[in-house]
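To close the section, here is one more complete example, presented without commentary so you can practise reading it yourself. The ligand is flavin-adenine dinucleotide.
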Amino acid sequence: MAEVLVLVDHVDGEIKKNTYEMLNAARRIGEPSAVVVGTPGTTSKLADGLAAHGAEKIYVAESDDVVNYLSTPQVDVLAALVERVSPPAVLIPAGADGREVAGRLAVRTNSGWLNDLVDIDGERAGTHSIFGGAFTVQSHVTTDTAIVSWRSGSLEVEEQSGAGTQETVEVPATDASKSAKVSNRAPIVGGDRPELTEASVVVAGGRGVGSADNFNVVEVLADSLHAAVGASRAAVDSGYYPNQFQVGQTGKTVSPQLYVALGISGAIQHRAGMQTSKTIVAVNKDPEAPIFEIADFGIVGDLFSVAPQLTEEVGKRG
Ligand code: FAD
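Output:
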């Protein structure tokens, strides 16, 4: 069976859920091989989790360069492995970093790129969800390898054990890879809340929230539900909430068990980032707001009246 490469998404020694989804997806078309690119010592913490989710092989690429040079070390490692094992597909998370890796890798290996897949239909074929989920599109590439960026939240995570055989590979350190250097890392704001793309509950606010100070209403409800906070682009552009929390086509894609939209109209570009949420609750004072078309529970009302009542009710139920 052909090896299918999966780039492991990990932060601070924790594997992100989308890695497990990609291992499941890879299993459908071949033997999943996890590729961990990290600083020295990273992999020892991750190997058990990867094997428990189906990785037959784990390629370990560790170097201090990894944190210094943006995405190029990941591209270098994957490009060398593509040349060596000729996989039918390489799966990469479809976040901002992942898309950069995927695009560069596609050019470097002369491969076709299937962007933002929600399903795998064959060795070099898959399904995209487009225009805010209004359509699905099947496509395939004709090159030997498909570079796939995988949309988080598209598949269930299943435990299935793999051999997890480890092999060390080099992180090439070419001058070209070092042309852009990381000069500063700003701490992420958001306190102890779960990471937006990993959270099982997201409470998001839109332009209807009205100001940065008012976003407190969103945060208080989020904290009562141990949720992450999200924001529409209009809320971000208005300066109500930081850009890193934007949900949507040009923001993050989330797929939580519960998505609560407060004062969000439900534009197609917003839906693109949240419509696969399992349960959607919308609070909007306009009964015609498009968000109600996809909401499982809709409340027509003023968010400043409804959200505190929800917070109080959640508090009563512990
Ligand atoms: P609005 O559309 O202004 O809606 C505000 C809503 O709040 C209204 O429905 C109103 O009835 C309601 N409201 C007002 N006051 C209250 C109240 N007190 N209580 C209850 N409800 C109230 N948008 C994104 O979100 N994410 C993206 O990634 C994104 N990418 C884009 C990319 C492109 C190329 C383009 C062109 C647009 C993109 N947009 C994106 C913008 C998108 O088209 C919408 O403009 C945006 O989503 C609107 O945000 P909103 O729903 O918060 O604001």
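Once you have examined the tokens, check your reading against these statements. The chain has nine helices and 16 strands. The mean pLDDT is 92.
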